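Blinded run. Sample ID left blank on purpose so nobody reads anything into the name before looking at the predicted structure. Input follows.
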Amino acid sequence: MALAPYLSIDRLRKQFGSFAALKDVSLEVFAGEFVCFLGPSGCGKTTLLRAIAGLDVQTSGRIVQGGRDISNLPASQRDFGIVFQSYALFPNLSVAANVGYGLVSRKLSKVEIATRVDELLRLVGLPDSGLKYPAQLSGGQQQRVALARALALSPGLLLLDEPLSALDARVRSYLRTEIRRLHQRLGVTTIMVTHDQEEALTMADRIVVMNEGVIEQIGTPLEVYRQPASAFVADFVGTTNFLPAVVLDAGTVRLGTMDLACALDLSPGPGHPVTLAIRPEDVVVRNVAPGTPNSAEVRVTDIEFLGSFCRVGLAPAGNAPALLADFSINVVRDLGISPGQSLLISLPPDRIRVFPGAPQLP
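Blinded prediction complete.
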C-alpha cells in the first residue's frame, strides 16, 4: 500500500491582479522529508511557501496537512514553525525570551518554559547564550536562535525561507551542515526555499525546481543533476554545455560535422533541430582512442584554474561549437594540458541529454 503524503498541494494557483505567480501547482511531501523549492527570483517558490503557511492565501486550490484541509485556515491555526531570511528576532528580548516566546501562550509554567528553552539552545549549539540579546550575536548565531524558536512548539512542519542567504559563505556552509544534521536527528518534515543550487543539492532529500510559477521537475539531487527534465533545469542546476544539433535517426544526431550516438526520442523526427546538453565534467580526455564512441579532436583555447580542477575551453575541428570541460588537476598535470594543444576527447553517449528545438539564447 502506498504511503500517504503528509502534505498534499493540489492545483494551487495564486493571482496578483492579472499576474499568475503560481499556475496550478501540485505537489506531495512525505513525513520526515527535507524538500527544497529551488528556482530563480520571481519563480513562485516563496509564494508557494507562504501559501502553505497561510501568510499569503492562494487564489484557488487545496492544501492538506496531516489529513486536515488547511486551505482556508489562518496561519495561527496551522501546524508549522518558520524561519525567515531576516531572522525576525525581537531585539528587546533576550535569546531565551525569543526562543520561548511561543511557549508563553501555551500557558506552560516558567520552569517548563525554561527547561524547553535550555533544551533547544543546546540543540542548536548555543547553550550559554540565553541571557544575551540578538545584537550581541553573529548572523549565524542569530539564525540558529530563529531556528530554535521555530522548533519550540514541536511543529509538524518546518518552513525555511532562504534562511542562509544573508550569511557569508563560510558560515552558510557550516549552517547548512548543521541544519541537515538537526533534521536527521529530529525527523521533522521540512521545506526550504532557496535560489542556491549548492544548498539544494547538499541538503535536500528531494528538490522541486520551479520556473515562472510552475514546477519544472521534482527529484532527488542526483536525478535533478544527472537527468534534468528540461533545458531550464540543466541550465539552472550546475554548469552545462548546450550544443545545437540535428536529428539523423533514432540513435544519432549531427553536431557540426560530427555524428554522435545518444539516447534519443525520435518524436522530433529526422532533420529536426535539437539541443544537446552535456556537463563539463562528463567530457572524457583520459584513455580515449580513435575508435572510442563520440570521439573528436579538439584544440585547447584557454584554461581557468579553479582550485581542485581546471575549466578548459575546447574548440572542435570543423564548424562544431566550442565547449567547456572540467578536468582534475591531476589530469591537467599528467597530460600536460596547455593552451593551443590538440586533444582527443569523447562525449559518452549516456551522458548526453537531448532536448527538442535549438538552444535558446540568454
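Unblinding after everyone has recorded impressions. The chain has a mean pLDDT of 93.
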